[in-house]
Amino acid sequence: MFKRKIYDALVRWKKEDSGRYAILIEGVRRVGKSTVAKEFAAKEFRSYMLIDFMEASDTVKNMFNKFSDDPGRLFRLLSGYYNVRLYDRESLIIFDEVQEFPRAHQLVKYLMEYGKYPILETGSLITLKMHSKAILPSEVMTVPMNPMDFEEFMRACGKDSQLDLIEEAFHNREPMDESLHADLMETFRTYMITGGMPQSVSALIETNSFQEVEKAKKLIVDLYRNDIRRENDRILAELFGSIPSMLNRTSKTFSPGMVREGTKTERYSKRISWLCGSRMVNPCYSCVNPDPAVRQFEDRSNLKMYFVDTGLLLTMMLEANIADRGEIFGAIIKGELSMNKGMLFENIVAQTLVASGRNLDFCLFDSDESDRKQELDFILADSGRIVPIEVKSSRIRPHKSLDRFIKKYGDKIDMGYIVSTKNLMEWPGVMNIPIYMAWLIQSHIPSKDGFVPCDHDS
Description:
The protein is an alpha/beta fold.
């Protein structure tokens, strides 16, 4: 059992909303939805009944079909079938992987009106929408579940005290002790290899073997491929397989030619929606007008698709690599990457921002200092301001895109960030933070000095 941040959201739901709304934990397969649901149910309720619709028998499904208009009888029959005693308002009903049986989700409105038992669902909302037309979203709250972020990973590894030091340094704008910085970068690279899927983190903690970690990750990637095969869509499968290649380019925006030569973007719109809705990828849209209301100015036809988990992305990258995995992972740990480390760093920053509850946007903009379009990796909306972020995998100079963005839009900005491997440094209006601090950007501190474009050595 790992301590997951989503647990607190479930406790709030129980206290404030469980009498009026069901809750759906939405997330990609193997992210830990069922585990946290069972842990929550066992700790916070007198009893619980879990119905896993990946394995539910026809007998169970027929109960839902036959007694949909009689919730009392339905729950009595289910209670007997699963041998679980149910208590009014003290028992939780879990519909696990509910997208496999949309009928149960359709009945949530009536089961909530019955009023005796709170209902928690896990699954994929996009699959529910595709397989059922009678969706009742007004009776169901949704809460996203992401792979373990670096904070959760550190707690799982028993390094809570180092988290306190990281937060203290960030909020005081002070660099870490250099030996501790080096140790934290090694830990972060270990996290980058392992990823945040509980199965792979467990393998690391239990065996301290990247070979076992890789086995766990390969099983998850294969599971995703099997889910895609069930859709019986060869182009969707090709799109999924092309994600590492697209992220490996200088321009990481979606290109239909990278999937199949001669095709157009329109052919992939529904497939992209499926991958985003399944949460296998985190979409990052082009923002055509950097503004605190960033969602209103997204060009959704121009996007990047970052993979849900950087550890899994690395596994996909290495599938065709016949080199010794131990040597490759050793090079990553030492910071001597023989592959496109910018690709991995950018993906894991995207993963971190999503885990912090952020939507992803990048920005293409014009500058008086260049005839070419400038690109900024990420922009965030925050309290009526915008937060620009540039990701650097090694050297932090040059960072012309960030400087030019600040020069053009500085009246909307309090603080800009460079995320890199370097220790914390600050200049007027810009802070370089090591990548292990990226999860703290959501609590960014406005600069005291206003904006002056940086010109400094790394």
